[in-house]
Amino acid sequence: MGNPDYAKILLGLDGSTYAQAAKEYACEIAQRQDATITGVAIIDLPGIQSTGGPVPLGGAHYEVQREETLLAETQDKAKVILNEFAQTCESRNIKAILHADTGSPFSEIVEESKFHDFTVIGKKSFFGYTDHETFGTLEKILKNGLAPVLAVPDSVRKIEKVLVAYDNSVPAAKAVHMFLLLGIWNNCDITLLTVNDNTDAADMLLSNLEQFFQGYSIQPNLVKASGIPDEIIKSYISENNIDLLVMGAYGRMSVREFFLGSVTQHLIQDTEIPLFLYH
Known about the structure:
By secondary structure, the protein is of the alpha/beta class. It folds into two domains: 8-152, HUPs (Rossmann fold), CATH 3.40.50; 161-278, HUPs (Rossmann fold, 3-Layer(aba) Sandwich), CATH 3.40.50.620. 46% of the residues lie in helices and 20% in strands. It has a ten-stranded mixed sheet, with helices on both faces. Helix 1 links the parallel strand 1 (8-12) and strand 2. The longest helix has 32 residues, at 60-91. It is globular. The protein starts with 7 loop residues before the first strand and ends with a strand. Mean pLDDT is 89; it is low at 254-261.
């Protein structure tokens, strides 16, 4: 096999069903392109330290013991998760690197993303290795990481139909560039969607974007719409059985988004398909 268009995939592992799905996506991509996966398990030390609450007078010793016990338990769980990942990669003849660290999950993953082509992680993460979600990890990775992110739900589906939602923002342009350069899904049925109340502007934008995709030997479908972007995108995904959404993360913010939350947040929460995101 020739040189890959990408060499290293960063995979967030926490033992959850979301991470299991992320592992399947990463393995399928790595097998196809002979890429290496770095499986990373983070010991959420700040999370452990924040669970104790106020320490009563004379309770410092017991608080230290509690933290040490939790730390040891999470370290053991992380080892099990990494061992299972290693066995999966060995059975599928996938090159794997195991990485465990202690600290803030998003900080450690952002740091590792500097040396990887893209990151695969669940839409929800549980780096405390409990039933309690590690809130904010994905959002912080999207806003601070250097690599594009494939954020996945807790189930796996074959990716055949791709929707590219484009608003002409810099994050959207970056997402399109990385999507095309990686070339993982360039052979899929690809639709370009722009939501714009100005018909002429929408036509010009789609024409320019179409020509860009044609340069990669892709003839996309073109769709323009007007209305509220996240609602239009969700409806199109549902009505057309879309398997993957490509978009920029945290692009232009409207007044509605300022008060109700961003399009990115809504689509992460309200869709059951993977999202390829870049900021």
